[in-house]
Amino acid sequence: MKIIATISHHSYGREAIEEIIRAGAEVLRYDFSNGTPEELEQRIRAARFVIDKLGLRRKVKILADIPNEAHPLKNLRDMSPEWVVLSGVGNAASLKKDKHLLIHHLGYCPTILAKIESNEGVKNVSEIAAACDIIFIDREAIGAQCPIEFLGVYQKKIVSAAKHAGKQAMI
Q1: What is the pTM of this model?
Q2: Which residue, 23, 41, 122, 123, shows the most beta carbons closer than 10 Å to its own?
Q3: CB half-sphere exposure, 81, CA atoms < 13 A
């Protein structure tokens, strides 16, 4: 189990990042829909500075949560995220295509998290789990597409598929 902290506009500064890491965060999540590539690169550089200052380069990871509208790959190579969330994953074929493009752009293969946020993703979760490293469950997005009483059922299905594939699930 990992403690993941979403870094928001309230926590971009080095002091806040250091406080978050000292509180136990092992992964710093940056939502790439919030900011320009240049702003994100600056924020991640600040985090890398703190991580290196604390001597935790191997323990604290950077997670790039890339929106599905457009994969903003500009500057991503310079940011060198260890983990990348691919959004809008509906099936294994689309995941593999996006993963291939990402690896080609980065020049290395980060840990790939497939964000399940649609009924199609829930339906195809077994094949998706086999093609990624970690399943990321977006309860809010799934809940907006289904009756609320099914959300727990879908979550259980996703977690079970991840376990069956020997993968972690993040909720």
Answers
A1: 0.90
A2: 122
A3: 29
